[in-house]
Amino acid sequence: MRTSSPDTISVAILSVQCGKVQAFRQPDEPSAIGKTPVTGAVGIHRLGLDGDEQADLAVHGGVDKAIHHYPHDHYAFWREAIGDHPLLSGYGAFGENIATHGLTEDTICVGDRWRLGTALVEVSQGRQPCWKLDHRFDGAAVNARVVKSRRSGWYYRVLEEGTVAAGDGMVLVDRPYPAWSVQRVFGLLIAGEHKKDREGLEALGEVTPLAAAWIRRRAKLLGLEG
Asked: Which residue range or ranges hold the MOSC domain (predicted)?
């Protein structure tokens, strides 16, 4: 069911982060997860933010993962879970481009369209964690806790290019799939909830803005791919 006139939801952007590719675990295992706050307006284009990079384009970046948003709301949880790690004293600890307070996976839906600064973006999928989070946090079991807690963050595709800066606003423009929170979709596709909710997994097919990689994952879980 489509909702063309959602309740007005807006938040302020706390920080915008970008990062360059550099050596990570080994010299031959580069990453751009180390993102740091930038000052002033940053251009937003089809593949992300000006000055931001991704090391492994097979699994990072692209139109469906142009911008990564991680709730700063979760930092308190992570301090309790793994201790007061230095990365948690600022922004960008999880490799996110956008930091806000007041938006979380249970309140953000796949297909949401947001005015991000002057750009228009659309939520495409949750962030599927990998080993790089554990390594970034010096061996703490962050990856597994992301899955268990559903504190995944999410990605945007860019529908209209523009600019964004810390202090700008984010305003919800459209919420076509209010039943499909990022938390629910992440649970079905990543956290194993499809095993007890095949009906939900089947119904997820109606969510056409879902990222192509997660459309394929849904098909595989349904046994529709050979």
From this structure: 36-173
Share of the chain above pLDDT 90, in %: 87
Q: Which two tokens stand for residue 152?
A: 């995944």
Residue 218 Cα to chain centre, angstroms: 18
Which residues in 79-129 belong to E strands, given as ranges? 98-100, 113-116, 119-126
What residues are paired with 10 via a beta bridge? 171
Six-digit token pair at 42? 């940053």
Amino acid at residue number 85: H
CA-atom Rg of the chain in angstroms: 17
pTM: 0.94
Strands of the chain, DSSP E:
10-18, 22-23, 30-31, 36-37, 42-45, 48-49, 67-71, 98-100, 113-116, 119-126, 154-160, 162-164, 169-174
Q: What is the pLDDT of residues 171-185, one digit of tens each?
A: 999 999 999 999 999
Q: Which amino acid is at 48?
A: G
Q: Quick one: tokens of 173?
A: 């423009």
CA distance 21 to 91: 18
Q: How far is CA 62 from the centre of its chain?
A: 13
User: How far is the C-alpha of 193 from the C-alpha of 86, rounded, in Å?
Assistant: 33
Closest CA to 11 of 113, 114, 153: 114
Show the domains of the chain with their CATH numbers.
Answer: 10-176 (2.40.33.20)
